[in-house]
Specification:
117 residues; alpha+beta; two-stranded antiparallel sheet
Length: 117
């Protein structure tokens, strides 16, 4: 299964200087990279949870019943979205060579770079 990309403008229908330029991205490879990113996220968040609590980046869940006064309420790390965002950026950056492989391989390049920028 593949996703088809064309250089035709979606609103005007005008195409770039090379009207035959197309890119094919395998949906299977996108799914594999997404699954690896998800697995890495699920493995990384629990390991870094205590680091955020020790750094003071935590909150207390006010919706839950608090324990008696000598015990502390459970601390919820607040900055775990940073981990998810970093992994998302890594997966996106790793997909760039796959997406633009036609233009990165010198044997297949026709030298026309007008439609890339």
């Amino acid at each position: 299964m593949y996703i088809f990309f064309s250089r035709t403008h979606p609103h005007t229908g005008a195409s770039g200087s090379d009207s035959g330029a197309t890119m094919w991205i395998s949906v299977d490879s996108l799914l594999v990279m997404s699954a690896l990113g998800m697995a890495l996220t699920y493995k990384t968040i629990p390991k870094l949870r205590e680091m955020f609590v020790k750094a003071g980046l935590f909150g207390i869940d006010l919706s839950k019943k608090r324990p008696p006064p000598p015990a502390e309420p459970a601390k919820v790390p607040e900055a775990t979205g940073v981990i998810t965002g970093c992994i998302f950026l890594m997966v996106t950056i790793l997909l760039i060579p796959l997406t633009f492989s036609k233009y990165l391989v010198s044997g297949n390049s026709d030298g026309d770079r007008d439609g890339i920028i």
